[in-house]
Predict the structure.
Amino acid sequence: MSDRARDQVRRMLALVPYLQDQGGVPVEQVAQDFGVDRQTIVNDLNVLWFCGLPEAVTGDMIDVDMEMLEADGVVRLDNASYLQRPLRLTAREALALIVALRTLRETVDQGAADAVDRSLAKLESAAGDAAAAADSVEVLSAAPVDPGVRATVQEALTAARRVHLRYLVPSRDETTERDVDPMRLLSAEGHSYLEGWCHRAEDVRLFRLDRVVDVAVLDAAADPPEQARPRDLSAGLFQPGGDDLEAVLELAPPARWVSEHYPVESTEEAADGRLLVRMRVGDPAWLRRLVLRGSGSVTVLEPPALAAEVRQVARMALQEYPSG
């Protein structure tokens, strides 16, 4: 979800009880109270008009008096009284929420963890058998984050200070030294990340906290340049760039998993169950390792120079094995 969409969801969740309490309030006053412009509130209300309980049909959805959205109109909300009723969860819904909260608990900072713990305790107390069933659910957790690393990064964010990282890059089996101006902490795809301006790369980068070997807060203030923008995660955590190398791979049946595990631009069925995939590659060394890992199941077709380079690396690797 993008930051813009996330802000809209938060605003709409607050907008419904606000309008229910007010009874009727001018559009301009709503915009002022929520700290946004009038058009933003109108857009929110247009979305709210199509919200309701699961499987609701048109007549069951929240009703917004759209005629009141004129220049001097007053907003009134109707057909939303069910939102005031106590929430009733099925056993399956309660189980899903408990498992999700337990997973989230492993990836948030201490301030958010306290809120998660309170919510989890209330839910487990009310859920009864569902909470007990959750104990038997195996959750694949991300690699643990050193509490000291998380606390130091949070301290730097709060104080707006630059940090010095010793950061492990597994693809190169290398520990790098970097000065970073922190921008935010986020959780995505089961891991916690620090997003910030990396002075080594001169660009915004994401750093997985479980790969931070050491971190120190520096005396310098964190001052990301004007062009530094948080990454839009609505399309996934990692997205290939337009300047990346474009490659075409032929995948034998044992390697078709590559098209599901990595972002690809297109796929095409070939003979004998083989699959042609077109993808963008930021690091040619990564692609060479992928081909060698495939043990003959992955073939580079384009670009020709990269295909020749991969074949040469493969021949050199084979020469390391004893003959006979």
